[in-house]
Amino acid sequence: MKVLLVAGARPNFMKVAPILKALERRDIESVLVHTGQHYDAQMSDAFFSDLSIKNPDYHLGVGSGSHAEQTARVMLAFEPVLLEARPDWVLVVGDVNSTVACALVTSKLRTALGCRLAHVEAGLRSGDWAMPEEVNRVVTDRISDLLLLPSEDARENLLREGAPPERIVFAGNVMIDTLLAQLPAALAAGVPQRMNVVPGSYAVCTLHRPSNVDAPDTLRAVLEGLSRVAERLPVILPMHPRTRHKADEFGLGSLLERMIITGPLGYRDMLSLVAQSAVVLTDSGGLQEETTSLGVPCVTLRAQTERPITVVQGTNRLTPWPIRSDTLLASFEDAVERGRSGRSPCTIRGWDGSAAERIAIALEEFAPGAPR
Ligand code: UD1
Predict the structure, then answer these.
(1) Closest CA to ligand 1's atom 32
(2) Which end of the chain is more exposed for a tag (fewer CB within 10 A), N or C?
(3) Is residue 370's pLDDT more than 70?
(4) Facing residues of 146 across strands?
């Protein structure tokens, strides 16, 4: 059996890493395609070295662009790769433009090539169609043969949309496989000490959603709120290139002065910081899950989340929307308060370090020709 895995953007790399290893353990051939959606060393290469991911077999080098440009470029570059590689499975992860682009190409060649499409992280829904990722998730799930659930609550979303139950398989959260494998090394890395902050007494923030950073008034309100948080605790803000460009364009640099600003961090350094922080404030999807696994209080800087299980678990809360500096500060204080009662272990089923193994088994059991 041959499995082609697609990775394109930062949050994909920690998802393919454990799957590649699980396939190798089972002597299943893998082909890794990097679309090049993310290309800076700190957005891509750092993850390959931290997570010991093999060099991609194909690099499509698509780079940045509008949604249409980026999606179309991935599709054009991926089609000949798929025709050449002729895998039994194409496996896409998450919800970025590379995910939907390769899923679409695969779905059109599925019959001709006799290959199938699997989606890791199927069934997450924010209900917000203004979010590009929501479109990517719904389209990818609709055309996938195998829908691999990160958590049990995602099943209901798929069934509601009419997905055939026999296509849905519980996998668990593959990103938590990576987190649990990397945590000892991350804690030993001592990144808080290197950055002159005291473990347990600082906040980590990430910010990159267009809904937070693309409009000047919104970005100003968020940065003002974070500046007020920085009066209470040191705030470390590793800046995504999109956010850096927008802060410069809108002339908001002075609002960054109270925070500890870095460029994007590699996987292990980020995990080291997050695991030892008092609170995380973020608009990332992955960090909502990582903080839940670690028991770190999280404030999600969004109007809704496609990961409501993190709220049910109790580590995550959404900040009131639209974001204002005073409500953001209140959300932070509430999170600090929640953190005082200590960290409880994550009890979500399948967030246990074995999701990649379950995915490899599902691919074998559902392979073309395999008995159902
Ligand atoms: C993408 C994903 C988002 C994910 C995020 C993680 C989509 C629709 N969005 O958003 O779901 O949460 O990645 O980071 O797929 N840039 C660089 N260097 C890079 C990559 C990007 O400078 O290596 C800059 C470019 O100016 C680019 C901008 O960042 O235009 C945005 O990059 P893009 O990949 O389009 O979207 P993200 O905001 O990163």
Answers:
(1) 64
(2) C
(3) no
(4) 118
Nearest residue CA, atom 20 of ligand 1? 38
Task: Please tell me whether residue 264 adopts helix, strand or coil conformation.
Answer: coil
* pLDDT above 70: residue 299: yes
Cα of 9 from ligand 1 centre, angstroms? 7
Taking Cα atoms as reference points, which of 117, 111, 115 lies closest to residue 99? Answer: 117
Q: For residue 322, which phi and psi values (nearest 5 degrees)?
A: -70, 155
Distance of alpha carbon 105 from alpha carbon 103, whole angstroms: 6
From the CA of 210, how far away is ligand 1's center (Å)? 10
Query: What is the number of structural domains in the chain?
Result: 2
Running DSSP on this structure, what letter comes out for residue 214? Answer: S
What's the DSSP call for residue 369?
Answer: T
Q: Which residue puts its alpha carbon closest to atom 33 of ligand 1?
A: 64
pTM as predicted? 0.97
Query: Is 208 one of the catalytic residues?
Result: yes
Residues 323-364 have pLDDT tens digits of 999 999 999 999 999 999 888 899 999 999 999 999 999 999
Range of the domain at 130: 2-173+351-365
Q: Give me the mean pLDDT over the 132-139 stretch.
A: 98
Active-site residue (options: 38, 119, 208, 240): 208
- Tokens coding 281: 């404030």
Residue 371 pLDDT: 53
CATH number, position 282: 3.40.50.2000
